[in-house]
Amino acid sequence: MSNQENESRNDTSDVKLWLRMLSCVKLIETDLRKKLRENFEFTLPRFDLLSQLQRHPEGIKMKELSRLMLVTDGNITSLVDGLEKMGLAERILNDQDRRSNYIKITPQGNELFELISIEHKKWLDGLLKNINPQDKALLYDLLSTLKNSLTKE
Predict the structure, then answer these.
(1) 14 lies in some domain
(2) Domain range holding 122?
(3) Which segments constitute the HTH marR-type domain (predicted)?
């Protein structure tokens, strides 16, 4: 095989790798979205937001939520509005900067998050049950290497 053929093959393998990762993520997300909707009448973005709020019990700024969740400020505002109406999150005025609020999970939000988290773990365990623990560890390490290389660029 010539160098040119080998380079072309490697280019294709990068594309194939990307497409394989994307298809796996989409399959998992689709399944999780369906189960959240059917079992809890809840959405994946709302669950993700509750997860972030649960990690910051003292509250977190909207801008920081946008950054952590990789979504626009407008999306966060809409998600927070929805959780607030459901009694799962609350806005707290920032004494240092009255233009910004902290968002905090409520006790009801914590309860629901804990309940959904138990099921979420079971669903993921079911989706990944055919991968042995050693392969999971290897995949985790490989994806960590990829993430680290991407965040350095």
Answers:
(1) no
(2) 42-151
(3) 14-148
